[in-house]
Design a protein that fits this description.
CATH class of the largest domain: Mainly Alpha
Number of strands: 0
CATH topology of the largest domain: Growth Hormone, Chain: A
Structural class: mainly alpha
Shape: globular
CATH superfamily of the largest domain: MFS general substrate transporter like domains
Number of domains: 2
Largest sheet: none
Radius of gyration: 21 Å
Length: about 500
């Protein structure tokens, strides 16, 4: 297949091929966050005497580093070119995946997961940047819907794929990445545009805000550490770490508002739809992590399903998400993003409430777990495309950076969700019994609360039909064009 050598017009001739390549990479990156989920009991056995807070870092290390590096990586990609960044990120991800597969101990596995996250941080924003750049405005919502739908299926199918592979060995979870990455690199080198409109002018030479990056890492790391370790730490140490993380977060906000070229441009948050999309993703994925982990432990620890049986029990969720995401873009175009997110949040809250009301120590898959998985799949398919479509509000020169902020919001929610799950359930949840079920009930309450927060954030994505918003975006470049036609957007967003 010939490489795309010119600008967006030539790229448009192969836009669906470009979308296929970047969606495949997106699938792999999101899958690798959640594919480890169902392997946690096996990892605890292999790395005994590891407890749940120990092996939870296999999930949280990936999510935290990915959340922290997404924004600076997106800015680098905007400056150097998305194609080179995308291919380099895939290569780093592949090498780190091999490191995970051969890790001799838990510390080496967590370190390799950090390497995976570093490569993924480059790939994710560039993938959505390509999906937006090669499509005309009237097709962007469809493209983003497919891209986000792939991510939704990947996140939900992580335990399914993991369950199939763990039957042989948890190391296959990472080895399976290698042939997929090699194929994606080869396809990307042939298909992706060689000139992808890296920005020029006074903003092109801007440097990464290292101080801001350190503040993000410190804030997220300390908060998640405090929550994850709270079952084992004395209360004063937990509160001290949590307070320190919140202080660093406040310092980051001050720096973003006052620094001439901060890690995250305030212009991105000047558009209400973009701001709401980021907040909604944090809220939703906090509950998403709690639901996915709790469902895995309900099936394995409480109901004593095998890993393969648990994987198949979770499968209806991602399957439903994949089907719903195909029509979510059209639904948002007719009803509006706010209504679509609200409908998804209602389904998500219903999934948590159904588990709260019906789950017990005796297996009841058809009556309890299956309806919850189907409701969760509907929520996934409706919420993600609508919230990620807010990336189109970003200025065109900052597509990767804007995409990175939304991706970081998703990963931040994932990291917080894992940490909150460990905090509210305690280390004993993996042992089953009444105490473990009580912990799972607290996790499902978190799901219901975060569903309400997601719906509230979704109100800011716009009450008008989403198709109108996309049409408006086409009158300018990203947020600038959209802001010019929206009376509610501050004048500084129009510049």
């Amino acid at each position: 297949m010939p490489a795309l050598r010119a600008g967006p017009d030539d790229a448009g001739q192969h836009r669906w091929a470009v979308l296929a390549v970047v969606s495949a990479a997106q699938f792999l990156i999101i899958l690798d966050l959640w594919v480890v989920n169902i392997a946690l009991p096996a990892l605890q056995r292999d790395f005994a005497p590891a407890a749940l807070p120990d092996v939870a870092w296999i999930l949280d290390a990936y999510a935290i580093v990915l959340a922290v590096l997404l924004v600076p990586a997106g800015r680098v990609a905007d400056r150097t070119g998305r194609r080179a960044a995308f291919l380099a990120g895939l290569a780093v991800f592949g090498v780190a995946s091999l490191g995970c597969a051969v890790a001799p101990d838990l510390a080496a596995l967590i370190a390799s997961r950090v390497g995976q996250a570093a490569g993924a941080a480059v790939v994710m924003p560039t993938s959505l940047g390509f999906a937006l750049a090669v499509f005309p405005p009237q097709q962007r919502r469809t493209a983003v819907g497919i891209w986000a739908g792939v991510g939704a299926v990947a996140a939900g199918s992580g335990p399914v794929v993991g369950g199939l592979l763990v039957e042989s060995s948890w190391r296959w979870i990472f080895l399976i990445n290698l042939p997929i990455i090699m194929a994606a690199v080869a396809a990307g080198a042939a298909i992706l545009p060689r000139r992808d409109a890296a920005p020029s002018g006074p903003r092109a030479g801007r440097r990464t805000d290292l101080t801001g990056t350190v503040l993000v890492m410190g804030a997220v790391g300390l908060v998640c550490t405090a929550l994850t370790q709270s079952p084992r730490w004395p209360a004063p140490r937990t509160w001290l770490a949590l307070a320190a993380g919140l202080v660093l977060a406040a310092a980051l906000v001050v720096r973003i508002r006052r620094h001439p070229d901060p890690l995250v441009s305030p212009r991105l948050f000047a558009v209400p739809a973009f701001r709401a999309g980021a907040a909604g993703l944090v809220a939703y994925y906090t509950g998403f992590a709690a639901l996915l982990l709790s469902m895995t432990l309900l099936l394995t620890a409480q109901w004593h399903f095998s890993v393969l049986q648990a994987a198949l029990g979770i499968a209806p969720g991602p399957a439903t998400a994949g089907l719903v995401s195909l029509v979510a873009g059209r639904l948002a175009a007719r009803a509006g993003s706010a209504a679509t997110v609200a409908a998804g949040a209602a389904a998500f809250a219903a999934a948590g409430a159904w588990l709260l009301a019906g789950a017990g120590g005796q297996p009841a898959y058809a009556a309890v777990a299956l309806p919850a998985m189907l409701l969760w799949g509907v929520a996934n398919g409706l919420i993600q495309p609508s919230l990620f479509a807010c990336a189109d509000a970003a200025p065109r020169a900052e597509l990767a950076a804007g995409s990175a902020v939304l991706g970081a919001a998703r990963q931040l929610g994932s990291a917080l969700g894992v940490a909150i799950f460990v905090a509210v359930t305690g280390s004993g949840v993996t042992g089953g019994g009444p105490a473990g079920l009580a912990g799972l009930n607290r996790a499902w309450l978190v799901v219901v609360i975060t569903a309400g927060a997601t719906a509230l954030a979704g109100l800011g994505t716009g009450r008008r039909p989403a198709a109108a918003a996309v049409a408006v975006a086409g009158t300018g470049t990203g947020a600038a064009g959209a802001a010019a036609a929206r009376p509610g957007v501050p004048a500084r967003a129009r510049r």
